[in-house]
Structure formats: C-alpha cells, structure tokens
Amino acid sequence: VSPEDAERLRIFFHGFSKWALPSSKVCSAAWSHPHQGYEAHVQRYRNSPLMHEAVPDAYRPILFTDGVRVPFPPPTKKIKPPRQGTERMLV
Q1: What pLDDT, in 10s, does the model give residues 55-91?
Q2: 3-state class of 3 per DSSP?
Q3: CB count, 10 Å around CB of 66?
Q4: In angstroms, rounded to a whole number, what is the distance separating the alpha carbons of residues 2 and 9?
C-alpha cells in the first residue's frame, strides 16, 4: 500500500455515512499522529506494556504481509506488565 493509496482511502471514507444498515454514525478517517508508518508503529509498540504476556492477543497490535498475519518484531528490552486499572482488559 502506497501513501497515495492510503490518501485515496482516507478521502473516500472520511465523512462516509451510507451504511448498509440504518445508522447515524459518520466515519472519520485521519492520518495517525504523532506516529506514522510501519517503522514508527513497530518502535512505538514493540516494548509497550500492551505486548506483555498478560495482555490478551485481541488487544495487541498486529501486522499483516499480503493479507497474512505475521509475527510482531520481538521486544528489545524486558516488557513491564500493564499498570493498575487495566484489569477489565485482562478478563
């Protein structure tokens, strides 16, 4: 996917409201800030408490190559467990 492809998708979906089922929801599409791009997001999350073994897989970021899930790059340091207050996520 190129930046041009992503921009076309953003333009198309931003403000979209013609859902198949009745809904008053309107799509909002925007570039990610402050992180943008694969490397920036991998660096952001690879050592994050979100990647700790106690966090269910459903809550972790995932990567795809050609539509197939691929392993997230390993951490570069020991990952701390999530802070107090995240118990709802661990159920």
Answers
A1: 999 999 999 988 899 999 999 999 999 987 655 555 5
A2: helix
A3: 5
A4: 11
